[in-house]
Amino acid sequence: MTRPVVVPRVRVIQLNGGRCRSLIGAAAVTQSPDSIDTPPLPIVFTMTQNVSVPEKTLEHWASLCVAYRYRSLAAQWWPVNGVDIDLQALPTQPGKAIQLELKTITPAGPGRHKVNVDLGQLWEYSQKALARQPFYAFPRPHWDGELAAAARADGQDVTELAVQRSKTGWWFGDWMVVMTTQQVAGVLRQDLNAYRRRDRGVKRCLVQFDISDPDKAEWGDPASSVPPSEVLDWSQFWSELDECGRDEWPQLIRVPRLVLGPWRKPRHREDGEEIYPRDELVEMFRQSEQLPAELQGRALELETLEPDGHGNFRVAPGYADNIAGPDPSDDDRASEPEDRRQVVFINSRGLFSARR
Predict the structure, then answer these.
(1) CA distance 94 to 301
(2) Kind of pairing, strands 95-102 and 135-139?
(3) pLDDT tens digits, 27-36
(4) Three-class SS of residue 299?
């Protein structure tokens, strides 16, 4: 007796000049190996929801803005699919590291856009130590529909929007905003508490914008969500980051051990940990700039500090010198392709001389 072979129904579809092969939704057919007649097949369309700005474009424009602001004093890198970002592999220079998670917007009707957030991704980020949580950055649009079409209609070259020579209001930094992971989790707290796992694929609307009044946003579920206290413009975010940011901001600080040493004398201790207020970190960075050239470079011994969420910093456990690999206590699994994180490390010399 001949064993049947299960063959999925396949249809090649012509879409906008391209071809795609789809198995989704097609019933399987049973054939004998001796019979290869092709049965009639259903047409299956798999459509992707349009976005106003491709996330990859936002990612590149963000990196251009950082490079322009800090010149050669900022290092940037991105995760490879399947590999988590190792924040411990930082440059052997005094400075600070942060993470950005870029999100795009989706048209949600005439004059409206929304920002969707994956609950599994947000839950994973929110479980990390404060220093390792990314900032979320996304557009607050003043245009209708797709950015490229709207810019062209106003006489703007869309490729110029990454630089400040663009017409006022069209520059990337004019319409991007930044929030912390904790702020995003606060808006979606009810959904996040119900979900409580890192599995990807379930998304919720973080915010909806109406271009008639972009500053009057509709956050999460209007019936249950609490709006964030403040959302920072892109340029304001970087200016505040240069001065060590705010109490609740995630960042990793690297300072020379010989600079940190004199500050370790008499000081406030909390649960056995040495606490360094933010204004002291600013002074440490200034002292780091004055180190002789022979003490700079790979031979410089560094300490890594992390924020405690109350305006102070402490030496981060597991972030010692000569870091060779990931912290064994970090049980993160590999990053999913959905992640759009990038790491930005800013040399301390760039923090007080950045272009405003």
Answers:
(1) 10
(2) parallel
(3) 333 333 444 4
(4) coil
